[in-house]
Design goal:
There is one protein chain. About 85% of the residues lie in helices and about 0% in strands. The protein has a single domain, classed as Methane Monooxygenase Hydroxylase, Chain G, domain 1 (Up-down Bundle). It has seven helices and no strands. Helix 1 runs antiparallel to helix 2. With about 240 residues, the protein is an all-alpha fold.
Length: about 240
């Protein structure tokens, strides 16, 4: 069998490289956005905004490449799924960039009020979980690894649980001390943005599952239904 790569294979390889570059930029943005929130450094917010411009550029470039390759190369079967997956995945990735920007802007807003971020909850821990999901989903995309896809879906349960615990804790803290309300409100909002990042990464994981198997299923919903069924069986 010839090992010569076709022009189409080379274009697919470049496409994967661009998607990976998008993921790496997003990981950096999430890191900077948390620093901007906890350190309230306006320069960090500017860096996040600049990085978002690069994410938007990659998003547009990848979508254009996918459409061009579909139109000109007429791919079939698995190759078509790869292009369709890349086309859909970048939409979720671009939205993650928007959330990173929103978190960084929260840090800037708090700073402009002359206030300081108060570590009411361990936000870096929540961000760390989400960033690990992002790195895993990029690995799954490149290696077409369904085990890693499953790990991403499972990890989102921990993100959701941590978000709800943080939200409830901060709300109670604000109830007991009204001086915490302004900062606390934005801490809850930033935590919600991170939780939504996890949701978008699950979307990406489901698309990778489709790319590999040809089956488009809601993995997170299936997991929750399975857990509920096991719980009901245990209580019977």
């Amino acid at each position: 069998m010839s090992s010569t790569r076709t022009p189409f294979d080379e274009e697919l390889s470049r496409l994967r490289t661009h998607v990976l570059a998008m993921g790496e930029t997003l990981d950096h943005m999430l890191d900077l956005s948390m620093q901007a929130l906890t350190g309230q450094d306006p320069e960090l917010t500017k860096a996040v905004l600049a990085a978002d411009d690069e994410v938007d550029r990659l998003d547009a470039e990848i979508e254009a490449d996918c459409l061009r390759m579909i139109a000109l190369q007429q791919p079939v079967a698995s190759d078509l799924r790869k292009l369709g997956t890349a086309f859909k995945v970048v939409t979720d990735l671009e939205r993650i960039g928007d959330y990173a920007v929103d978190i960084a802007k929260i840090g800037r807003r708090i700073s402009r009020r002359g206030l300081f971020y108060k570590p009411l909850v361990d936000m870096p821990r929540l961000a760390g979980l989400v960033r690990a999901m992002l790195r895993d989903v990029m690995s799954a995309f490149v290696n077409q690894d369904l085990d890693v896809v499953a790990r991403v879906v499972t990890a989102d349960d921990e993100v959701d649980d941590l978000y709800h615990r943080y939200r409830d804790f901060v709300i109670e803290a604000m109830r007991q001390d009204t001086t915490q309300v302004y900062v606390g409100t934005f801490v809850v909002l930033a935590a919600k943005y991170l939780e939504r990042v996890g949701d978008h990464l699950v979307n990406v994981a489901e698309r990778i599952h489709y790319m590999v198997t040809g089956d488009l299923v809601q993995l997170a919903k299936q997991r929750k239904l399975s857990a509920q069924s096991e719980q009901a069986t245990g209580q019977a």
